[in-house]
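Quick one, T. Sequence first:
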Amino acid sequence: MGEQQQVQFPQEVIDEYAALGVDLVAMFSAGHLGTRMGIQIVEASADRVVGTMPVEGNTQPYGLLHGGASAALAETLGSVGSMLHGGSSKIAVGVDLNCTHHRGARSGLVTGVATPVHRGRTTATYEIVVSDEQDRRVCTARLTCLLRDANPGDAAGAGATGAGATGAGATG
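Structure tokens:
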């Protein structure tokens, strides 16, 4: 589904995680689900996360982009922003995701842009706007992540948390 692009992080963030033995670029290659869906994160900071996803391969029976695919893109991007906001001492776990689907998309790429609504000590909320190639809004989503203290063994687990699998971490 296309050539993988390298995720862009500020150098100080890369250095912070490298000191913990964590490769951020590998961690945020969108994870297994994201890889199967063709999600590519192209820009990432606590202030803004941008990613793309092809419509092809992510459709429902009517040939339109599946709402769950938009939700997976949104959760991936909001999770990355939340994790970057929390820093290396926190693990971001999704506790609420809601999506409003405005229009269908039948082809091309959709682009999601996640921006913070709230960034606190214990939670982070991001609004994610998914648009088609004509810059028409396809979906608006909001993701809230709990920021819990990282345990010493959590560095490897942070990749699953920040790559759209946040719901699983919320219960454990």
